[in-house]
Every structure is written in C-alpha cells, then in structure tokens.
Amino acid sequence: MRILKLSAFLVMAAFVLILTGCIENPDNEAASESGEAEETDAPAVEEGEEVVNIGYSGPLSGAAAHYGERARNGLTLAIEEINENGGFEVDGKTYKFQLTSLDDKYLPNETASNAKRLLQENETPIIFAPHSGGIQAMQVFNEQENFLIGAYSSEPAVTEAGNELTVRIPPSYDIYLEPFTSYVMEKHGTKLAALPTASQYGKDWTEKLLPFWEEEGGEVVYNSSIDFSKDTDFFTLVTNALKEDPDVMFIGGASEPTAKLAKQARELGFDGGFIVMDQAKFNEMEKVTGTYDTFEGSAGVTPLIHSDYPGTKEFIEKYKAAHGEDPGSEAGYHYLAMYAFMEAMKAAGSVDDPSAIREHMQEGLDAVPEDKQVYTIKKIDENGGFQTELRVAAVEDGEVVTMETDE
Length: 407
Fold this sequence. Notes:
Low-confidence stretches: 1-34
Shape: elongated
Number of strands: 16
Mean pLDDT: 89
Oligomer: single chain
Structural class: alpha/beta
Radius of gyration: 21 Å
Distance between the termini: 56 Å
Strand content: 15-25%
Helix content: 40-55%
C-alpha cells in the first residue's frame, strides 16, 4: 500500500511539473519515458549469498543525458565484474551488488525525491549522484536517513559542509584555478568573458574563478551564464560577450553543449582561448566539433584517455568493448569508487552500516587492486574528499598536451 501511495504521489508530482513547464528540463520533458527505475541484471545468487542494493540518481534524459549515462556506465561495469567474479565476502558471508538508477534530469528536487524512493524501495546504503545540486539536496537528510552519498562533484562545498556521510569522488575544482589562469593569461591576455553553465555548479565555479582572475591582474569584461537545458542557440549571448573584445572565454558544463558553445564562438570570430570547467572534457567535445582546433590555446582537465594510471589502459579497453566509445573521467571515477566502497565494506565488516563504511574508506582505497586503479587515489581527507594528483591539459597545434604544474 505504501508503494502504491508513493507511486501515485510521484505521478501527481510529474503532472504538476509538466503544467509548470519543468523550467530546467531540456526539450520540456517532464520525466523519463516510463518513470521506472532501471536495474542492472539481477546477480545470480547461490544459497547463502545476499544482494546489496546500490542507488544512482543522475541525468538520464535531456542535455546532460550522455554525462549521466557515462557516470552510471562506470558503476555498472564495476558491479558486473564484481558479481561475475563471485561477489565479495564480508564476515564470512558472500554478497553481490545490484544497481538501481533513476533519472533526475539534473534537477536537485528530483534527486532528493529519487533518494527517498531508493531508500524506501531498495534500502540502499549508498546512493551516487553526479551533480552538486543533487548532492546538496540529499545532504539535507542523508545523515538522518542514514545513507552514504557517493558524490561525483568537484564542488568544494560538498565536503566543506561537514556532512559525515558524504564521500566526494573527484578532486576539488579549486586546484585548477591557478594553472588554468596562468596558461591562458600568458598565451592570450587578461580580458575574460564568463559564459558558464547556469547550474549551481557553474555559479560556484564562477564565484571562485572570477575573483582569482582579478587577483592575478585580469579584468572581467563580461559575466553571464547559459541554461543548457533551455538554450540551444547561443548566438545572442556570445555576440554580446564578443562586443567586449575578450581575450579568454570561461565556459563549461556537460561536454556536448559546451562544445556547441565553443564552436559557435569560433564561428562568430572569437580567436582567443577558453578556460573549460572540469565537467567538460576535450576528447568528448571533439566528438561534437570534429576537431581539437576549436579549442586551440585552451586549458582544461586531462582526458582519461590521455592518462596513464596503473589501471587506465585496461579500463579503457573494457569500456570501449562494452559501449563502443572511449570513456570519460566520470565513468573511470565511478568504476574506481565502486571498488573502493566494496573494499571499505570488507574492512568495516558491514555492508549496511554507512558510518562504519565511511570510517574505513581509507582502508578501502588502500585495498583497491592496482589493475582497478583507473586513477591513483592515495588518500581521503578528513572531510571525505578523495585526493588525486593534479593533472591538467591544454590544446596546442590541434592536439591535447599535458601541462606542467608545480604539484
């Protein structure tokens, strides 16, 4: 009866969103086609074995759908491997994983609703989410409801909030401010036009970068944002920005719309460099533009395919075999994180005590096999953030190159 009431509530909520225009939803989609949870294939469980449910809420429709799907693909690949290898043992009992995912269309309120549904219907001790707005929406109640957040966001506030049941998976984006700024200032000049995504993540990135840019002697000549869920033609915004004659443009969000923005800026005559927020990846944007030349003289994060951690090459091969394309960092980090959480469960002696699992995350990281280390993460800090060495990239002469940094 509770499930029926919950379903009725969700249907009514979706109907209300349709009537109100679902303001942040691309293509005016009110929900995924069915609104149903998607599950990985149920693992083959032998007598005495049990299943641990893992939750995922992310954008699986709309402008950021590819981003959300790639993040989920990393989890799925890890879970399928773990199950096919016989699962894992905790306190003498064998467990296997099952992933249940829900589309939140990049809307924080949907993420919160999805989390409650995953808890009620699947009793998930861990719920992954790949955007800061959704993560922060869950942080309002995750400690009270007793579940861990696998937070795929570089937003520093995710861990600065002091939430004891949050693990931030990628490095904080503030480590990129200095190398990105130094590179493009030296190469192009000091006048910056900001046109990032209008999401909370984009706003927070902007609030960090723009003051830093000015502290380094730069000038912000234009500051606006783009709602990629509603805007698909950026002509007016880019034209207005270019009227201020910027040397550099600050852009970013999901890779596909960010690439379209950069392409249009070039078509309108912009010949400076881009600072690309860490969510967008050069190799994924090149699929849209057809060439790296669009990003000549630009700074961004190093694509996974240009990295060389112990498990990177093997993961890329497995991912390509499964999905027919190169993986991005969101897939690689989720794959690694799933293994780290499994090892933390083993160290904690529990699959359903979020506090104990969190307390043993360092042991989990230490125990991740080398061939699963798509990235090498040696430490989780006291606030719950994975610490990864700094690697940044630029596009020079039509190719992605690794930039030298002080770290």
